[in-house]
Design brief:
Blueprint (H helix, E strand, L loop, with lengths): L8 H8 L3 H8 L2 H10 L5 E5 L2 E4 L4 E4 L2 H4 L8 H12 L12 H11 L7 E5 L2 H16 L3 E5 L8 H4 L5 H4 L9 E3 L4 H8 L4 E6 L2 E2 L4 E2 L4 H11 L3 E5 L23 E4 L11 E5 L1 H7 L17 H16 L2 H17 L8 E7 L2 E6 L5 H13 L3 H14 L1 E2 L1 E2 L6 E4 L7 H20 L3 H15 L1
Helix pairs in contact: 2-3, 5-13, 6-13, 7-12, 10-11, 15-18, 16-17, 16-18
This protein binds pyridoxal-5'-phosphate.
The site of pyridoxal-5'-phosphate has 14 residues, from helix 7.
Length: about 450
């Protein structure tokens, strides 16, 4: 039965959408709009399609950020949107909390087919929740308290995930956190030393760290797995960003030939439509955590397994399989990385291009020529990472391309575009990047002018 109501979402947006910035400034995170105004990113976007978003003048922006990686299929993929509509129109008895939701079972079955050594899935609502579940499961299953994590790691910002965050700027002021311990990324000896203490539940690691796009050194994950097994501790892999085809394998750990005990994934799993997270583990871990009927809700979340997220997840996996999205990420990623790598010899400010599939980091470094070194050093003295910000700024303002600096104090920009991009997007990005680098190497122009204003802002703080 259709219920008459005077609520009209389209009308509300038409009438009040233009208030987005004042509303955000007054009612949401107060620094967000300040930051957007300061760097001139305060656009009014009206719609998105595929790898592009469009502002109120109709201009297109190439989205090399994909909502921090959720839009692996691009924005508003018709198959996923249809599945969400269908789930709504089906008037399902969702979230009764006392039945077995069919879509969750189907999505679990489909996901686990891609990690055949794992048996069960816990569904939550975000990446950090997927990690929290993995931390709790590892501690409970091993009856040990400590998780080892890596310097520069990022696993989310709730308190448990924050305890395994390798960046001081996120942790400061929120302690005391859990008694977890960081080791250098790739350092097997440091891992072994910690394991010998006998209290380690597991190692939590990203196969490619989002911060700085640092790829696990060859042999690190497999070496870690062997050492962890010797000490009856668990390998916990965070595939929140690297999973779902991003790196050219369905899960990035496949590249390293390991069989993790716990895998956390999220972001692209629901095609960017509905918040979702998934933690996968072998049967024995679930049997320990959920060991009796009394413990049925010992780890749970009200909205986990909701029908909209599960329907979007099933549709996303269907599209990935039928459109060869993972192979596309591998091939187009290799092309983009090769075209960017060719530029390293041409530009002295360009230090390295790295990554796998469509997770690519572009690192800048100290130029050799005296002419450029003065401007570079001035930026470095104000704050490390400012040069990368000037590149992000120029790509956006001159070429309408959205990218991000890959973490505080890093001279690295990160590309995590939709996995469906093709040669046209590679051409547009490389052409724009060459233009920005040409300008940067002239030692004058928009890029260095913006650099000067960043230095001023940094001093004013
Ligand atoms: C590797 C990794 N883990 C966990 C998270 C946290 O995910 P969420 O923001 O959905 O909580 C992120 C988010 O960027 C991530 O990149």
């Amino acid at each position: 039965m259709r219920v008459q109501t005077d609520f009209d979402l389209a009308k509300l947006l038409a009438e009040r959408g233009h208030e987005r910035y004042p509303l955000a400034a007054e009612r949401l995170n107060p620094q967000l709009t300040r930051m957007l105004h300061a760097i001139g990113f305060d656009k009014t976007y009206l719609r998105g399609e595929g790898a592009y978003i469009y502002d109120d003048t109709g201009a297109d922006y190439l989205d090399m950020l994909a909502g921090f990686g959720v839009f692996a299929l691009g924005r508003n993929h018709p198959v996923v949107r249809q599945a969400v509509h269908d789930a709504l129109d089906a008037d399902l008895a969702d979230l009764t909390q006392f039945d077995a939701p069919p879509l969750a079972g189907l999505l679990a079955e489909n996901l686990l087919a891609r990690v055949p050594h794992l048996d069960r899935v816990y569904f939550g609502n975000s990446g950090t929740e997927a990690v929290e579940a993995a931390l709790k499961f590892a501690r409970y299953a091993t009856k040990r308290p400590r998780i080892i994590y890596c310097d520069h790691a990022f696993h989310g910002l709730t308190t448990g995930s924050l305890s395994v965050n390798g960046a001081k700027e996120f942790r400061a002021g929120f302690g005391p956190l859990l008694p977890d311990t960081a080791i250098p990324f790739g350092d097997l000896d440091a891992l072994e030393r910690e394991l010998r203490r006998g209290d380690v539940a597991g190692l939590l690691v990203e196969p490619i760290q989002g911060k700085g796009v640092a790829v696990a050194p060859p042999g690190f994950l497999s070496g870690a797995q062997a050492r962890l097994r010797e000490h009856q501790a668990l390998l916990i892999v965070d595939e929140v960003q690297t999973g779902m085809g991003r790196t050219g394998d369905f899960f990035a750990h496949e590249h390293d030939g390991v069989e993790p005990d716990l895998v956390a994934t999220a972001k692209a799993l629901s095609g960017g439509y509905v918040p979702v997270g998934a933690t996968m583990a072998p049967d024995w871990i679930f049997q320990k955590v959920y060991s009796s009927m009394d413990r049925v809700l010992v780890h749970d979340s009200t909205f986990g397994s909701n029908a909209l997220a599960m329907a979007a997840g099933l549709a996303t996996l269907h599209v990935m399989d039928h459109q060869d999205v993972v192979a596309n990420a591998r091939e187009v990623g290799a092309l983009l990385q090769a075209r960017l790598t060719e530029l390293v010899d041409r530009y002295e400010l360009l230090a390295e291009v790295r990554g796998r599939g469509l997770m690519i980091g572009i690192e800048f470094g100290r130029p050799k020529s005296l002419r450029l070194r003065g401007s570079w050093m001035a930026l470095q003295a104000a704050r490390k990472g400012l040069f990368a910000q000037t590149v992000v700024h120029a790509l956006f303002h001159k070429h309408r391309i959205l990218t991000q600096v890959s973490g505080d104090h890093l001279e690295v920009i990160k590309l995590i575009p939709p996995l469906t991009i093709g040669a046209a997007e590679v051409d547009r990005f490389v052409g724009a990047f060459v233009d920005v680098m040409d300008e940067a190497h002239q030692g004058s122009g928009l890029i260095w002018d913006f650099g000067k204003s960043l230095i001023k802002q940094s001093r004013a703080k």
